[in-house]
Structures are given as structure tokens and as C-alpha cells.
Predict the structure of ZNHI3 protein.
Amino acid sequence: ERCAPDSVRERERGPPAAPAQRPWDVRDILGEEDEQDRVPLQKLKLLGDSEELRGLLLNPHLRQLLVTIDQAQDKSSLLRRFMQEPLFVEFADCCLSIVEPPEKENVLPE
């Protein structure tokens, strides 16, 4: 390896590592005025435990919609458009039912 030209050594090692990106933070998308719209982290973790949500995420069309939103510059107008798509609405409803379950009606107190 010592005698090999730089280009050969670089090829053997692979491309240089990309600079580390800072971790994603909720403040990246929410301002102070949106504080009431934040979901506690422990409730967000419930999303990972949902079999129903996992099933929905197997749909490649839904995954492409989510990637499109993630990469979009104008997320709000895109979200308004996607809220007309039944598959996206089903995904959003599933997420909301997990983090904010509907209150049970007609339940007798114990």
C-alpha cells in the first residue's frame, strides 16, 4: 500500500466520510407559537410499537409520499395537497389515534 499511488489507496479505502450532519430536532419544523402542537416523546415512541402503522408503511406509495414531503421545500402546501389522498389520510389518522387515542364513550367508571 505504501508504494501504491494515492488514487489506488483512495479506491481501496472508499470515498471520504461525509461531514456529520447535526441531529434532527423538533425545533427545525416547529416555532415557539406551535408549542401546543408538540407531542411528548414518550407518545411518539408508541408509533414504533404499532403493528397497524407498520402495515401501512409497507405500502411503497405511502413511503414515496413521505419521502416527497421530507424533501420538499414548501411542506405546508404539499401537506394540504396530500391530505386529499385517502392513503395519506389513513396514515395520518392512524398516527393521531396512537398519540392521541379517542376518549372512550359510554364507559362505566370502575
